[in-house]
Cupredoxin domain-containing protein (Azospirillum oryzae), 186 residues
Amino acid sequence: MRLNIRTLTAASLVTGIALLTVPGLALAGAGEPGHGHAAAVGEPAKASSAKRVVQVELGDNYYKPESISVKAGETVRFVLKNKGDFLHEFNIGTATMHAAHQKEMAMMVEHGMLTPTGINTSMNGMDHSKMGMAEMKHDDPNSVLVGPGETKELTWKFTKETALEFACNMPGHYESGMVGKVAFTR
């Protein structure tokens, strides 16, 4: 039997999407306990509830600062400024969550939804079922895409102490060092 790589890719993606529809699996990360983002990494919050603002510079494959200290239960408003020439992401998650999300981001790039410098808005509303998926969008509450020269915000409540990173999961960026640690203090 001759295998077609496109068929295998589509089958893998359909399996992945099926897993993503099970509550808690996609957000907690494979093999991690919890029921969604709140249990695994925290939860989205209103900017008005943040007691602290952290400015983060996104450059081409770096973050400034390289690590961020938080307290369990703290709500932080992140102001994210992309000073690079490429599209970058600020995503809060565990290493396992980032590994899974990198695959999703690669698929979005492969299908033209994301480009090295931005979001292809002409892909909005496109029927992705022909690609073996029901829907493809970047809308996780723990993540924001920031284009070159843009400033965006993400407000996050760190509900419990756990091993977290903030990272850019655009293809090759995490591997090039665009990852930082979230350190919990008491």
Observations:
- The radius of gyration is 17 Å.
- The longest strand covers residues 52-59.
